[in-house]
Amino acid sequence: MTRTTSSSNPRRAALIATGLSLALASPTLWAQATAPVKAVASFSILGDLVRQVGGERVAVEVLVGPGSDAHVFQPTPAQAKLVGQAQIVFSNGLGFEGWMSRLLGTAGYKGRHIVASRGIKPLHDEAAGGHPHTGGHGHEEADPHAWQSVPNVMVYVGNIAKGLCEADASGCDSYQRNAATYNAGLKALDTDIRALWAAIPATQRKVITSHDAFGYYASAYGVKFLAPQGVSTDSEASAKGVAQLVRQIKKEQIKALFVESISDPRLIAQIGRETGVKPAGELFSDSLSDAKDPAPSYLTMMRFNTTALTQAVRGE
Ligand code: ZN
Question: Which of 1, 71, 78, 109 could form a disulfide with 104 if both were Cys (CB 3.0 to 4.6 A apart)?
Answer without folding.
Answer: 109
